[in-house]
Design goal:
Layout: H1 20-37, E1 61-66, H2 82-96, E2 100-102, H3 112-121, H4 125-142, H5 158-172, E3 174-177, E4 182-185, H6 186-195, H7 211-219, E5 224-234, E6 239-241, E7 260-269, H8 275-280, H9 289-299, E8 302-310, E9 316-321, E10 332-335, H10 342-345, H11 356-359, H12 365-377, H13 381-384, E11 394-401, E12 408-413, E13 425-428, H14 434-443, H15 478-492, E14 495-500, E15 506-507, E16 520-522, E17 528-530, H16 568-571, E18 572-576, E19 581-586, H17 594-597, H18 600-603, H19 616-623, E20 636-639, H20 646-660, E21 673-675, E22 679-685, E23 691-692, E24 698-700, E25 703-706, E26 709-716, H21 728-734, H22 737-746, E27 754-756, H23 761-775, E28 785-786, H24 792-810, H25 814-828, E29 834-835, H26 836-846, H27 851-860, E30 885-891, E31 894-901, H28 907-917, H29 919-922, E32 929-933, E33 937-941
Parallel strand pairs: 1-2, 1-20, 10-12, 20-21, 22-27, 28-29, 30-33
Antiparallel strand pairs: 3-4, 5-6, 5-7, 7-15, 8-9, 8-14, 10-13, 11-12, 16-17, 16-19, 18-19, 22-23, 22-26, 24-25, 25-26, 30-31, 32-33
Helix pairs in contact: 1-27, 3-4, 21-22, 22-23, 23-25, 24-25, 25-26, 26-27
Length: 942
């Protein structure tokens, strides 16, 4: 790759031209200057990082944060730093406009890739991670990113995860008070039990419970709790996975291994208690609407009713329905094949009159249910809930009673109902649900319509309307009918209004080594005991074998074995936790990778504080609410939309718990969210379909060739396997980091995806060369700038550009800001002299995008030190007033001329000028009407 045109040779290049070689001399020098002088250090109000002499001490603050990267062994490619460069340009601009800017960077350094590499090579993951972090740090520095390096964090640092463990203890030692709608310390719950102001589950008196029974009761309320519950077990990885880490087709997101439902003892977090607040507070966040929608859909809040359908025996089937108004239309029920009641309700023989289609061809209900269960177990949840018209199922042989009309309704099992969703049972209303309709058609079940459809409508109706065939609901609209039915159910004791969620509690255990240890031990009762804060951090022990025990990917009955469980001298530990020395057993699961990223925005505020998570004054300054109703939080958070659900939802949950407990003043972690787009790349494949090196491909006559061989171009991701990776290191070496920065910001809107094209980078380099030539003579190196004033026309252009660039920078429209700077550069280039009056504003406006070049030019213009705190140019309002206004003149609707008049010209003056401009077209005819639209056009009617 070369950076000069084909017509240039090294001998042709003037000695003082701005080239890649010059950029590679300038850039490291300024990076070292910024580092040595702490140029981008942001002063805190109090503590170690306070600095009352700092030029921005006490100034309005701005906290801007990137989603921090996982430092993989492959390093950064040019797509990774797109958002980082964008936030760097924005924060440099805001620093120049008077803000105290906090712009930190850290590393999300726990995770599976480092552990898998350790398993393969025997290299400790700490060694690999430290090497990768250093590589990322050097790559980011090479790009000139203006981070406050004192605040860098890595989630694998024990000094960091000490506080991750501390937050876990806050959650473990809390419960959710549904009346207050907030987390409260567990000690307050115990006090209520002791005082008798809160009933003990089961009805016994608190004083009558044993110590173990009391602990079990309390553990049932904790926000972090152990559950023997169905989990996603992945034998191929040897670990359980959160729902969010399983693909729709039932495989692991990482590794693509099969995932099975198993009942295992795992740590869970009661995120469902925050479902309402997580939904409601989205309304006050400045986030993209698609991200809000994704979170609302993931939480899946539904208002409806729990309804009991009595069986012929003692059992009652409970369903949750969002449409209780359609209960009169429930003509059958469906249970998930795994539902706990199935075995107890199946009779020994088919009831008299059972239809042949209902039995599946089996002689007994028991045989039919067993066969269907086996069939359903072979399907993934995705396959079971697919929108197939033909539904499968089998009659259980049992009937339930519809509580609103006493009708006997048959009970089926079918795979389109899942045990883990709702109650695992549904009341089927085929008149108003597509799946129920399809099932009813297959099994010849009755359809009762309870919502009036349009006269010309046939089949299932899912729209609005008034209630019909519903006795006391008839004539009511849907909303009214729902409320009336819920009231009736509660009055009659058949049900209760309720809100349910698609969201499930967060599975918080991993059977891995490379993660945060839990600050939990178990005593002789087998119940968890929280370690005191004085014993934090619980550090990962050194082990020889990093891998969890993995199994045949299809071995669903395999049992987890964690790497830490093999470290016997660590697992069994003698501690004095207040009642004398005892032997305890440590928790051998580790926390998921999400843990460290749930709160890192807080640690940036006070990274070296070893007394508290964050000093309250520093937290209130950087993240506190701006006023009544304001969420508080990071002022601008930039990252990919792929984190819209997992990371953001988990972080919001942790932050709300900390807010409830009084540890932070903001009730949301991220006030404004911005999703940057992606840089994609062309890949090229030969006739065999194998990727070839993209950098070696040339285009000729609209086709692509590797040597003489034609290849096919494809568009998609950048990756090593496609041989189309371009690294920022290469770009910095071949063009300079500033050129790379300008190119990435000029490619298009920051929130849009765009294709990478290395050959186009030279355009950005030539722009910077033109700016350089305005200041420096390429032949002699002398500064060309004079103190002569600019002419009036250029002055107006200058101030229009200043005004436009400021507006673009505020709205993150970096591509249009650069376009305006190119326009200004082009306007200044042909002038006989380069006036300081125009050149200095140009250099200052360029500095967020090309900071090294701007610093160098600022020095050549006679200034000492850095320009980082120099005021950003401000437009003179007087220069923004147009000298004249151009009016198009229409004649019977067609533009026949244009006229320029002074902005202050009156209507008569504009009319006269307009008629003069179209006098030839009028040919002496008298206009019937002349309409002057102020500032826009003149319409002449003849």
């Amino acid at each position: 790759m070369v950076t000069m045109s084909e017509s240039e040779t090294a001998a042709d290049v003037p000695a003082f031209r701005y080239t890649a070689a010059m950029a590679n001399e300038i850039e490291p020098r300024w990076q070292e200057f910024w580092s040595q002088h702490g140029t981008f250090h942001a002063p805190n109000p109090v503590g170690e990082l306070a600095d009352p002499e700092h030029p921005r001490a006490g100034a309005p603050k701005l906290h801007v944060q990137d989603m921090f990267p996982y430092p993989s062994g492959e390093g950064l490619h040019v797509g990774h730093p797109l958002g980082y460069i964008g936030t760097d340009c924005y924060t440099r601009y805001k620093r120049m406009t008077g803000f105290n800017v906090l712009h930190p960077m850290g590393f999300d350094s726990f995770g599976l890739p480092a552990e898998q590499y350790a398993v393969q090579t025997g290299t400790h993951p700490a060694t690999t991670t430290a090497k990768n972090v250093e590589r990322y740090r050097l790559q980011l520095r090479k790009l000139g990113l203006a981070y406050d390096e004192r605040r860098t964090v890595a989630t694998t640092d024990p000094a960091y995860y000490r506080w991750t463990q501390w937050i876990f203890l806050q959650i473990f030692n809390s419960w959710f008070d549904r009346t207050a709608r907030k987390a409260r310390p567990i000690a307050e719950l115990i006090a209520e039990f002791e005082a008798g102001t809160r009933a003990v589950p089961g009805g016994r008196a608190w004083a009558d419970l044993s110590a173990v029974e009391r602990r079990e009761v309390v553990n049932g309320y904790r926000l972090a709790y152990i559950s023997e519950a169905p989990v996603n077990w992945c034998p191929g990885l040897g670990t359980v996975l959160a729902n969010e880490e399983v693909t729709p087709d039932g495989r692991s997101e990482r590794g693509n291994f099969p995932v099975f439902q198993r009942s295992l003892r795992q740590w869970m977090m009661r995120i469902t208690e925050y479902g309402d607040r997580l939904v409601e507070d989205l309304d006050v966040l400045d986030w993209p609407e698609p991200v809000k929608l994704m979170q609302r859909n993931w939480i899946g809040r539904s208002r409806g009713a729990h309804v009991g359908f009595p069986m012929d025996g003692a059992d009652t089937i409970e369903v949750f329905t969002t449409r209780p108004d359609t209960l009169f239309g429930a003509t059958y029920m469906v249970l998930a094949p795994e539902h706990g009641l199935v075995d107890s309700i199946v009779p020994a023989a088919w009831p008299e009159g059972t239809k042949d289609a209902w039995t599946g061809g089996h002689a007994t209900p028991e045989a039919a249910v067993a066969a269907y269960r086996a069939q359903a177990a072979a399907k993934t949840d995705e396959e079971r809930t697919a929108d197939a018209k033909v539904k499968t199922g089998v009659f259980t042989g049992a009937y339930a009673t519809n509580p609103v009309n006493g009708a006997r309704v048959p009970v089926f099992i079918a795979d389109y109902v899942l045990a883990g969703y709702g109650t695992g049972a549904i009341m089927a209303v085929p008149g108003h649900d597509e799946r129920d309709w399809d099932f009813a058609q297959t099994f010849d079940l009755p359809v009762v319509r309870t919502v009036q459809a349009p006269d010309d409508h046939e089949g299932v109706w899912t729209g609005e309307g008034v209630a019909i065939n519903s006795e006391f609901l008839n004539g009511l609209e849907v909303t009214e009918a729902k409320a009336a039915m819920i009231a009736w159910l509660e009055e009659q004791g058949h049900g209760k209004g309720a809100t349910t969620y698609r969201l499930r509690d967060w599975l918080f255990s991993r059977q891995r080594y490379w993660g945060e240890p839990f600050p939990i031990v178990y005593d002789e009762t087998g119940l968890p005991v929280a370690l005191p804060e004085s014993m934090l951090p619980v550090e990962l022990p050194e082990v020889d074998d990093f891998s969890p025990r993995t199994f045949d990917p299809d071995d669903a009955d395999s049992e987890p074995e964690t790497p830490l469980s093999r470290k016997k001298d660590w697992v069994q530990v003698e501690l004095d936790l207040g009642d004398g020395p005892k032997t305890y057993t440590r928790e051998t699961n580790t926390m998921p990778q999400w843990a460290g990223s749930c709160w890192y925005e807080l640690r940036y505020l006070d990274p070296h504080n070893d007394k508290t998570l964050v000093d309250p004054q520093n937290e209130a300054y950087w993240m506190g609410p701006r006023g009544e109703g304001d969420t508080g939080g990071v002022d601008l958070y930039v990252g990919g939309v792929e984190h819209a659900v997992l990371h953001l939802l988990y972080a919001r949950f942790w932050h709300k718990v900390l807010f409830d407990l009084g540890h932070v003043s903001s009730f949301e972690p991220f006030r404004k969210l911005y999703n940057q787009g992606y840089i994609q790349a062309y890949a090229y494949k030969d006739a065999r379909g194998f990727p070839v090196q993209a950098g070696d491909v040339v285009e000729r006559d609209g086709k692509y060739y590797l040597g003489d061989q034609e290849v096919v171009r494809e568009y998609g991701k950048m990756g090593k396997s496609l041989k189309n990776v371009v690294t920022p290191d290469e770009m910095a070496q071949d063009y300079g980091a500033d050129t790379f920065r300008v190119y990435e910001m000029a490619m298009g809107p920051l929130d849009a995806s765009r294709p990478w094209e290395t050959r186009a980078v030279v355009g950005s380099q030539r722009f910077l060369q033109r700016v350089w030539r305005l200041v420096v003579d390429e032949e002699s190196g002398a500064v060309r700038v004079t103190d002569d004033p600019v002419d009036p026309k250029t002055k107006r252009v200058l101030h229009r550009i200043i005004d436009g660039v400021r507006g673009d920078m505020e709205e993150l429209r970096f591509n249009t800001a650069i376009a305006k700077l190119i326009e200004l550069t082009n306007a200044l280039t042909p002038l006989p002299t380069a006036s300081r009056e125009a050149i200095e504003p140009l250099v200052l406006m360029l500095s967020p995008f090309a900071p090294h070049l701007a610093e160098e030019l600022w020095g050549k213009l006679g200034h000492d030190g850095t320009l980082a705190y120099t005021g950003f140019p401000v437009a003179d309002p007087a220069q923004l007033v147009a000298e004249s206004i151009t009016y198009p003149v229409q004649l019977n609707g067609k533009v026949r001329g244009r006229v320029e008049v002074a902005p202050e010209a009156g209507e008569d003056e504009v009319r006269t000028a307009a008629l003069a401009a179209v006098a030839e077209a009028l040919a002496g005819r008298e206009p019937r009407k002349v309409i002057v639209v102020k500032g826009r056009l003149v319409s002449v009617v003849i």
